[in-house]
Amino acid sequence: MTHTARVSERVSRIQPSAIHEMTRLSKEVEDVAFLSWAKPTTDTPQHIKDAATNAIQDGLAGGYSETTGLPALREAIAEKLARDNNITARSSEIIVTVGAIEGLCAAVFALIDPGDEVILPSPTYSTHIRQVSIASGTPVFVPLIEEDGFSLDLDGIRKAITPKTKAIMYCSPNNPTGTVLEERELRALADIAIEHNLTVITDEAYEYFIYDGHKHFSIASIPEMAGRVVSCFTLTKTYAMTGWRIGYIHAREDLARQIGKIHIPLAICAPVASQYAALAALTGPQRCVEEFSEHYLEARNLMCDRLDRLDSVFAYQKPNGGYLMFPQILLKEGSDSATFCKKLLREARVSTTPGIAFGPTGEGHLRLSFCIPNEQINKAFDRMEAYLR
Ligand SMILES: Cc1ncc(COP(=O)(O)O)c(C=O)c1O
Predict the structure, then answer these.
(1) Which domains does the chain possess?
(2) Residues 65-108: pLDDT tens digits?
(3) Measuring CA to CA, how many Å separate 174 from each of 18, 40, 202, 238?
C-alpha cells in the first residue's frame, strides 16, 4: 500500500509558485530569452571569492561560527549600517542569516501568531506572502497606487488595520515594481506603526540600486521606531552573491534575541565560508557595486526604450530602483497573466513572470528583469515585437 504523507494544512494551502512553474517550462524551450530571473548574471567579484577560498584553506570554515555570526562580520555590518543606512547598531543587535530569506522568515515567525494579520503593500515579493502564510498569519494586501508610480496608499493602510493587525512588511526598492519608497512616505508609515503599535519588517535587498536621484531610506533610522523594526538585508544582490546565501537582520537587542530563538532551529548559523566572503565584500573595494548599478541603469533605460515601441501592448511605470519592472498588459488576453506568459514563452520564446505571482493586485501585469546583458534584452524584445505587433 502506498502511503501519502499527511502534510500540514498550512502547507497544503500554498499554491505551487508561478515563478518556479515558468522556470520549469522555460527549460523545455530551446534558446529561450530570459526576462524572468531576478538574480544577477554577473559573477561574484574575485576578491570576495578569494577570501572564502583562503578561509577554507586556513581551516576556518569547517565548523559553526557564533550562531549570530562572526564577531568581525557583525562589526563590519554595524559600520555599514551607520554609514549607509543611518542606523546606529550594536553587534548584539545583528544576526547574520542564510540570505535575506532566512532573516525575513525568522522575523515573521518571531512576531506572528496564528490568525495575526500582516499588511503587505502589493504587488510584493511572493516569498513574503508565503512566509506569512507558513506562519499561519493572514496576508492583507493593500494595493500600491500604480498610476502614482506604485506609491504607498497610506489611507488604504490605515483602513486595513484591525485589532488583529500585527505587522507591516514591505520591500523597497520593490520586487516586482522597482519602486523606491520615499523618505516622506516611510515617515508617514512609521507614524501609523507607532499609533497602532505595529512592527515593521523591511526587505532592503536592492538598497544600492537606486536611480534618477532617488535615495534609499531605512525606516529603522527613525529613532522613535526603535524596537518596532526588523530590517532585513542581504549581500545577494549588492555583490552578486546569490548562491553564497548570506544576509543579516538588525533589530533592537531584545527583539533580536527573540528572533535568534528562531534563527537557531532554522540554520544554527549562516555558512561560515560565506561569512568570510561577506566580510571581504563589506570591508573591501566598493567599485563593483557602482559598476553593477551603472549597468542596471543602462539596462533599465534600454528596456524602457524597447517597451515604448510596444506602447499599444504594455503600459509601465519607470522603476527608480532594483532591476525589475512590472508593466501592465493592455491586451485583453493579458488579464490572465499566467496564460499570457505561457503563450509568450511557447510562441515567442521569451520567458517572463506572470504578475499574479505577486499577489492579487499583480494580475494583468508581467514582471521583467533587466539584470541581464543588453543583448539578451534586445533579443527578447525583437521576438516580442515580431510576435505581439
Ligand atoms: C525583495 C527580495 N528579497 C529577498 C530576495 C532573496 O534574497 P536572498 O538571496 O538574500 O535570500 C530576493 C530575491 O530575488 C528579493 O527579490
Answers:
(1) 9-43+287-388 (3.90.1150.10), 46-283 (3.40.640.10)
(2) 999 999 999 999 999 999 999 999 999 999 999 999 999 999 99
(3) 18, 16, 11, 15
Q: Which residue has the cell 495575526?
A: 116
How many Å apart are CA 45 and CA 240, to the nearest integer? 8
SS3 content of the chain, % helix, strand, coil (to 5): 45, 15, 40
Sort 37 into a burial class: Cβ within 10 Å, 0-12 / 13-18 / 19+: middle
Q: How many residues does the chain have?
A: 389
Give the number of C-alpha atoms closer than 13 A to the C-alpha of residue 389, restricted to the C-beta side: 11
User: 351 by DSSP, 3-state: which?
Assistant: strand
Ligand 1 binding residues, C-beta < 6 A: 38, 99-101, 125, 171, 175, 203, 205, 234, 236, 242, 247
Going from the Cα of 171 to the center of ligand 1, the distance in angstroms, rounded, reads: 10
Contact present, 39 and 323 (Cβ < 8 Å): no
Distance CA 234, CA 95 (A): 12
Ligand 1 atom nearest residue 38's Cα: 14
The pTM of the full predicted model, rounded to 2 decimals, is: 0.96
Choose among 198, 27, 17, 169: nearest CA to 108: 169
Compute the distance from residue 2 Cα to the ligand 1 centre, in Å. 38
